[in-house]
Specification:
heterodimer, A: Beta-lactamase, five-stranded antiparallel beta sheet, B: mainly alpha, two-stranded antiparallel ribbon, 16 helices, 4% strand, globular
């Protein structure tokens, strides 16, 4: 019987060899797939095992992780609530995060390569590495003002956005989109509650989850005239040059006449460029655009940041919230020749021209900053979990130079004139130089107009403090004046912010 | 790991000259291996506490020390009652048993409220209960060694045990589901909060019967009548008992809804028939019958459902567990995810999330441990199982009587098959069926039955390695035809 016993021994070795081979398949080859599987509860438990870092602005914590008794050890809460929801985003238990929670996830979660020293040290001491902290450039005053004023706007708009940036650095001072949402229920550990809250928000007509300040493009209306004026100044026209105007203009090959917002605006056959901007003279700019041609206009818009598809606002250098590309659209016929009607309408920011509120603020900022457009950012500093080591401090840098210093100075004078003498009077601030441009954009034939304002504020020495863009969607009559008023309030808040000059 | 420390002992076979060979009991090797195993168990306990509690309590060594005392007692029993028994068996089994207790205690720590974790009593929770079961099981094994001074003596009760085995196998099947069914498999007898798995004991009883019956019938079963494709096939009328066992195992499959147990009994039987007759044809017949039966059950399950539906469902889960990851496939999916999360090195003892696994204390304990000790740790565990099995087979090779050879060979193979069925099941090598993982799973039935199995292996290996002019003054027969069994078979049947 010894021969079969030996063969049974071989069979046993073969059976165990199969087990061993199969374990290799599962624990080595398929390990990564199983480890990160959607069905693997360890993924979430591990994520909540260490304290996620804070997101803070001006010494106020806007997102903090609180210890719980549950299986998931930390609950993400947002003391900043609705005001900061679009900047911060939220970190749900299931599904993917949004906003800075997503963009700065590695650092907040403590898995970033930058925190390797902390992790190694904690491996020795046996502590669990907490996540790093992210400090924002946002000004609490400016953000609060922007949110409260937008929500309480007196033209009854329930959708809109406001953004303020420091023209000299590109630091975002305020970024608000309404309607907003409370991110706290979305981060609930009760995933059924979180899903229900998400579905409710998703179905709301105002699309509160959308970040309109950087994610939505709208026709910019007359605010686009700054771009056209910049192109004109570079093509032999000065601010005192008379340009053709009139109460109505029908471009060649078009049957739709372009008129002005009121009969009192530039009925003369000729006005200076300065007063065309100040009064927001549509006929003058429609004719001016036709004179400059589509290539010049498009190139100038591109130099201000239109058509850029990869801009992000977050940490300087990498990642962040992605910004929708602003577009000038087509101004040509299918055969490539200029389409006078399209050109005329595009020159006053209609037709296919589309702009994000951020782009509007960046135009104003470039003008205020002597022609230098800084790259916008919202993450000021990355701070180690122990709050002693600083890992990354934003080092502001120029994104592009849309106009020369001289052209910028001319544009600044014209925009100041708009606030002093023209359509932007609501944004005036005593003791400071405020410049801006209003815009009223037709959205659709049967819908109310959007009201825009882009502007800036300079201190008594001419140094820029803030550049602001406010848009009130479908605000109707008085929308741009209200936008100018709100922009003025945001600029006041930016001035009042300690360290904000 | 223990294999390297154990020099191969040459079993007394023909050609050895008595007097020249030094009979060595190797009990001291057993003692030192046992202490090494217990040191590992203590280290495991310390690592678990370090990971779960963030500190090692002053009393971390108490469970390991209790186990050491129990196993040292067993060592002394072996030293006196089976001095020539294989020295690797006890340390290997003690290591598995100790790690099992350690892992179950780790589950208790995870289940306990954080503030109660540090002072978890030694006999508290499932870990403590397993510790108590270990004590009882080792005492039973020692008792069996004391009562059964010669393994051939149990052949006297072969028919009784055979009958008892069949009754134990069929008992859960005929009892109402409220008493016998847990998690879809009717394998249990529940009395109040207390439940036993009679099948665990049935396999031992049946194996004694198989060994006895086959030793008597081996000449008849070896007779060949047909030669087909170069293989001798047995006579048709000799197929009777094989078919009976086949039918019983398929009935188990259908009525107890358990492929694993069915595969275990049938594999056990086919292996012993093969060892007894040395005829490959029996292996082929067995394999064809089993796989044919399983395939038939699958087809019937798909077509008519009824009693076959459970088997069909299990096969479907096996083919694609991720098709219904939260319903039918949940257990297997979570087992695979735990194993995969462990990866090569594992999360460390106490570092995993075993509570995410359903049935982690029973069927899925291997996956739960695997998450924490990784592929390398599980490979080591498999090697320890393999060591026990191969040591059992070595005892079968060394012992001189046919009954002992069949008994030890059959038991060793049964242990191997059980490990294969459950580990293969949770790792998706074969369809998952509810089997306990020997010496690791929580539960008294399994632990007692497997310790009794080890006691029999110890007894047989003692007989095999005992010098021919043995110290016990016992007359040991040379290997050959089992005359003694031929002499006194049927008249000793007592109920």
């Amino acid at each position: 019987m010894n021969a079969p016993l030996r063969r049974v021994g071989v069979v046993v070795i073969v059976l165990f060899g199969l087990l061993f081979a199969n374990l290799n398949w599962i624990q080595a080859y398929k390990a990564d797939e199983y480890r990160t599987s959607d069905y693997n509860g360890r993924v979430q438990v591990a994520k909540y095992d260490r304290k996620r870092g804070n997101i803070e602005a001006g010494g106020t914590a806007l997102a903090v992780s609180k210890e719980t008794d549950g299986e998931l050890k930390y609950l993400r809460t947002y003391p900043g609530g609705e005001k900061y929801a679009h900047v911060l985003g939220y970190e749900p238990v299931n599904g993917s995060a949004t906003g800075l929670e997503r963009a700065e996830n590695d650092f907040l979660a403590g898995t970033s390569d930058q925190l390797i020293v902390n992790r190694l040290r904690d491996m020795v001491t046996g502590d669990t590495t907490a996540g790093g902290n992210v400090l924002l450039t946002l000004s609490k005053r400016a953000q609060d003002t922007a949110y409260d004023e937008l929500r309480g706007n007196n033209v009854g708009a329930n959708k809109g956005a406001a953004i303020a940036i420091d023209p000299a650095t590109g630091a975002v001072q305020a970024l608000v989109s309404i309607p907003s949402f409370d991110p706290n229920p979305l981060a609930s550990h009760d995933t059924d509650d979180a899903t229900a809250a998400y579905n409710r928000l998703e179905q709301e007509a105002g699309r509160p989850l959308r970040n309109r300040a950087i994610g939505e493009v709208l026709p910019p209306g007359s605010t686009f005239k700054i771009v056209v004026a910049a192109a004109a100044l570079e093509n032999g026209i000065t601010k005192e040059t008379n340009i053709p105007a009139g109460s109505s203009y029908t471009p060649p090959t078009s049957s739709e006449p372009i008129g002005n917002a009121a009969p009192s605006i530039c009925p003369e056959s000729q006005v200076t460029l300065m007063s065309a901007v100040t009064e927001s003279c549509n006929t003058g700019f429609a004719k001016l655009g036709g004179q400059l041609g589509p290539d010049v206009l498009k190139e100038k818009a591109r130099q201000f940041g239109f058509e850029q598809e990869d801009l992000t606002v977050g940490r300087l250098g990498e990642g962040g919230l992605s910004v929708a590309a602003s577009r000038t659209g087509s101004m040509e016929n299918p055969d490539g020749s200029p389409d006078p009607a399209a050109l005329a309408q595009s020159s006053i920011g209609q037709r296919d021209v589309r702009m994000t509120p951020l782009q509007g603020a960046m135009i104003a900022a470039a003008v205020a900053n002597g022609g230098s457009q800084m790259r916008p950012y919202v993450v000021r500093q990355l701070l180690a979990p122990d709050r002693t080591t600083v890992y990354d401090t934003a080092n502001p840098r120029e994104l592009r130079r849309p106009v020369s210093g001289q052209v910028a100075a001319d544009l600044r004078d014209m925009m100041v004139s708009v606030v002093e003498n023209g359509t932007g009077r609501n944004s005036r601030i005593n003791g400071y130089t405020v410049g801006g441009k209003t815009g009223t954009a037709q959205s659709a034939p049967d819908r109310p107009d959007h009201g825009w304002f882009i502007g800036f504020v300079l201190d008594s020495e001419g140094k820029p403090i803030s550049a602001v863009c406010v848009v009130l969607e479908e605000a109707g009559s008085g929308g741009s004046a209200e936008a100018a008023r709100i922009a003025g309030q945001i600029m006041r808040a930016a001035i009042a912010e300690p360290g904000g000059r | 790991m223990t294999a390297a420390a154990t020099p191969a002992s040459s079993p007394a076979t023909t050609g050895e000259r008595p007097g020249v060979r030094m009979a060595r009991s190797r009990r001291n090797a057993e003692l030192s291996l046992l202490l090494l195993a217990m040191a590992l168990v203590a280290a495991y306990g310390a690592m678990v506490e370090a990971n779960v509690l963030d500190t090692v309590t002053p009393g971390f060594w108490v469970p390991a020390a209790t186990l050491t005392a129990v196993f040292l007692g067993m060592h002394l029993v072996i030293r006196f009652l089976a001095p020539f028994a294989d020295p690797a068996l006890l340390p290997a089994v003690a290591l598995l048993n100790g790690l099992g207790v350690g892992f179950l205690r780790r589950l208790d720590l995870a289940n306990a409220a954080p503030e109660e974790r540090a002072d978890l009593a030694i006999f508290a929770g499932i870990g403590g209960r397993q510790l108590a079961w270990t004590l009882i099981s080792v005492m039973l094994a020692a008792g069996l060694l004391a009562l059964m001074r010669d393994h051939r003596s149990i052949s006297r009760y072969a028919y009784t045990l055979g009958l008892a085995g069949i009754v134990l196998v069929m008992l859960p099947a005929v009892l109402p589901a409220s008493i016998s069914e847990i998690n879809g498999a009717k394998l249990w007898v529940r009395i109040g909060s207390f439940s036993i798995q009679p099948g665990e004991f049935a396999k031992l009883a049946l194996l004694v019967f198989f060994a006895y019956y086959l030793v008597r019938k081996r000449e008849v079963l070896s007779l060949a009548s047909h030669r087909f494709l170069g293989i001798d096939f047995p006579r048709g009328r000799d197929l009777g008992p094989v078919l009976v066992v086949w039918v019983i195992s398929l009935l188990v499959l259908v009525f107890e809804k358990d492929l694993g147990t069915s595969l275990l009994y049938f594999g056990m039987f086919v292996a012993t028939v093969y060892i007894a007759t040395e005829r490959v044809s029996w292996l082929l017949i067995g394999l064809v019958l089993f796989f044919g039966g399983a395939y038939l059950a699958y087809v019937l399950g798909e077509a008519v459902g009824g009693p076959f539906a459970n088997f069909y469902l299990r096969a479907q889960i096996w083919l694609d567990p991720f098709a219904q990851p939260y319903d039918d496939g949940y257990q297997l999916v979570q087992g695979l995810l735990a194993l995969g999360s462990g990866g090569l090195f594992g999360a460390g003892p106490g570092g995993g999330q075993p509570l995410l696994l359903p049935e982690v204390r029973n069927d899925f304990i291997f996956a739960g441990i695997g998450e924490e000790i990784g592929l390398f740790g599980l490979s080591a565990l498999l090697v320890i199982y393999l060591l026990i099995v191969e040591r059992g087979l070595r005892a079968a090779l060394a012992v001189r009587d046919s009954f002992g050879k069949l008994l030890a060979g059959g038991l060793a193979f049964t242990l191997a098959l059980q490990v294969f069925v459950i580990v293969g099941g949770i790792s998706k090598l074969i369809p998952l069926t509810g089997q306990t993982t020997p010496f690791l799973s929580a539960g008294g039935s399994s632990l007692m039955a497997n310790w009794l199995l080890i006691a029999v292996l110890l007894r047989v290996s003692d007989a095999g390695r005992r010098p021919v002019d043995g110290a016990g003054g016992k007359v040991t027969r040379p290997s050959g035809p089992p005359e003694q069994l031929h002499g006194a078979p049927t008249e000793v049947i007592k109920p």
